[in-house]
Amino acid sequence: MGEGGEYLLAMATGSMPRLTRSMRMLLAPPRSATALRRAEEGESVRTIAIALLANVAIGVAKLIAGIVSRSGALIAEAAHSGADCINELFLAIGLYRARQPPDELHPLGHARARFLWAFMAAIASFLIGGCLSIALAIARLRSHHAVEHTLWAWLVLAISFVADGTSWLQGLRQARLQAADYGVPVLEYLRRASDPVVRAVLVEDSAALIGLILAAIGLGVSQISGGGTADSVASLLIGVLLAVTAFALARPFADFLIGRSIPAVHFELLRRILEEDPAVVEVLALRAMYSGPEEAIVVAKVRPSRKLDIDRLSRAMDDLDRRIRAALPYVADVFIDVTGDRGRAVK
């Protein structure tokens, strides 16, 4: 029986054999210090849970109130909440998939699955929230339905604002904590954050609060005028807001899926660390890209000092590895190719 079959048999019987070196390499992929700390804190799971519970509760309330009051804006907001629920489910699936151990087809693990499911969540938000809301708004603009029983609609809008605001505050709390780790403002962190949860939930909740304001304006104007045009226009604007938000979320996730480099300021820091190391004479090539949320892989080709023997060179490379990880805690693994060829230095 092969190593893989022996391991599966041990799992089934409950008696684990001593793992071989090759199996340990597959079962225990390198993790960055930042990713490990995030997993221990559990903020992403908490943020998703709060957002999901809020959207399920208010989504049902919005739909009922929208049907009773014949408010297109509230029905559009119900579609918005439904899309957000699917988003949170996709983000949760991404978290689960990312925890799966590496295998022969995925030797670096499944961390990038979080980017994939976050990208799919953005597409779902565009199709379900944006396109559906726009289609409903156009249909209501043609039918000229008046808004009725507005008391229930106002009550649901108020409750929804509190629920979405609570979820937004949790997302902002997580964003502030993580931005502090990088020493940058929250907005700057969100612009380049590799964590899909904090970016998706905070942006979605911000769009939800703006959508509620649009719905309130449309409902108020329709109530004063006695017609439903303003409410339908608000529904249309909510659909456009959802579509724009979904596209804004999908774009950076696509970059991370393709293979995005670490921020330029961090890349320059990494290059200086390599060039200033006494064991390195020349940096011939350097690459640093994300392998998962807040996890990066550094690949470098260097020409070492000829004054070092094998033992001293090995210790020097180990020290260099530690300095890189200390300076950039989200680095999960470092690969340094030592060569005697001059080649072409990195710019």
Short structural summary:
The chain contains 12 helices and 3 strands, in the order αααααααααααββαβ.
Relevant terms:
2 domains; Alpha-Beta Plaits; 347 residues; three-stranded mixed beta sheet; elongated; mainly alpha; Alpha-lytic protease prodomain-like
Could you estimate the helical fraction of the residues in percent?
A: over 70%
Q: What is the CATH T-level topology of the largest domain?
A: Alpha-lytic protease prodomain-like
**Portion in beta strands:** 5-15%
Shape, per Cα inertia axes: elongated
State the assembly state of the protein chains. single chain
Q: Tell me how many strands there are.
A: 3
Straight-line distance between termini: 50 Å
Mean of residue pLDDT values: 81
Structural category is mainly alpha
Cα-atom radius of gyration: 26 Å
Question: Describe the biggest sheet?
Answer: 3 strands, mixed
CATH class of the largest domain: Mainly Alpha
Task: Provide the fold topology.
Blueprint: H1 3-13, H2 21-27, H3 33-41, H4 43-69, H5 72-98, H6 113-143, H7 150-182, H8 186-192, H9 196-225, H10 229-258, H11 264-276, E1 280-292, E2 295-304, H12 310-327, E3 331-338
Parallel strand pairs: 2-3
Antiparallel strand pairs: 1-2
Plain-language structure description:
Helices cover 70% and strands 9% of the residues. With 347 residues, the protein is mostly helical. The chain folds into 2 domains: 32-258, Up-down Bundle (Alpha-lytic protease prodomain-like), CATH 1.20.1510; 264-338, Cation efflux protein, cytoplasmic domain (Alpha-Beta Plaits), CATH 3.30.70.1350. A 3-stranded mixed β-sheet has the order 1-2-3. Helix 4 (43-69) packs parallel to helix 9 and helix 5 runs parallel beside helix 10. It is elongated and about 85 Å long.
